[in-house]
């Protein structure tokens, strides 16, 4: 499986350029800071705005719930509710607890994408 990855930073001024990279996209990875309760609504709004784009209609969605190693981080279930992930009906989606510092959960999430995009489990 060939991968091309773009890190499209979340600052307001960069969001208008995101659509430049959507064509041919098979998977979208959203990384949530599980300790940032104040911005979870902004993330929800941006996620649902992304899902409306024509070039992403066949894409799967992976949500990494990052910083799970930090006390009082939102759980994946809390993030699922806050982002209203259960209302997403036109895309396969998955939320994966992770810790970018240790790598915990990262391979599981990427394996989920590989299985959905290629139709087979990673070896």
Descriptive overview:
With 123 residues, this protein is of the alpha/beta class. It contains 4 helices and 3 strands. The protein has a 3-stranded parallel beta sheet with strand order 1-2-3, sandwiched between helices. β1, α2 and β2 form a beta-alpha-beta unit.
Primary descriptors:
3-stranded parallel sheet; globular
Give the fraction of residues assigned to helices. Answer: 25-40%
Q: What is the H/E order? A: HEHEHEH
| β-strand amount | 15-25%
Chain-averaged pLDDT: 85
What class would the helix/strand composition place it in?
A: alpha/beta
Query: Number of helical segments?
Result: 4
Cα radius of gyration in angstroms: 14 Å
Task: For the record, give the distance between the C-alpha atoms at the N and C termini, rounded to a whole number.
Answer: 11 Å
- The gross shape turns out to be globular
Give the strand order of the largest sheet, numbering strands 1, 2, ... along the chain: 1-2-3
Number of extended strands: 3
Main sheet summary = 3 strands, parallel
Poorly predicted residue ranges: none
Summarize the structure.
The protein is an alpha/beta fold and 123 residues long. 29% of the residues lie in helices and 15% in strands.
């Amino acid at each position: 499986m060939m991968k091309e990855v773009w890190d499209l930073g979340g600052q307001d001024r960069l969001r208008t350029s995101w659509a430049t990279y959507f064509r041919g996209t098979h998977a979208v990875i959203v990384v949530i800071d599980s300790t940032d309760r104040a911005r979870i609504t902004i993330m929800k709004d941006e996620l649902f705005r992304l899902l409306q784009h024509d070039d992403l209609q066949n894409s799967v969605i992976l949500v990494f719930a990052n910083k799970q190693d930090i006390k009082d981080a939102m759980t994946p279930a809390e993030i699922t509710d806050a982002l209203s992930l259960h209302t997403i009906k036109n895309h396969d989606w998955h939320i994966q607890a992770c810790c970018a510092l240790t790598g915990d959960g990262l391979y599981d999430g990427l394996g989920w994408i590989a299985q959905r995009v290629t139709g087979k489990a990673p070896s």
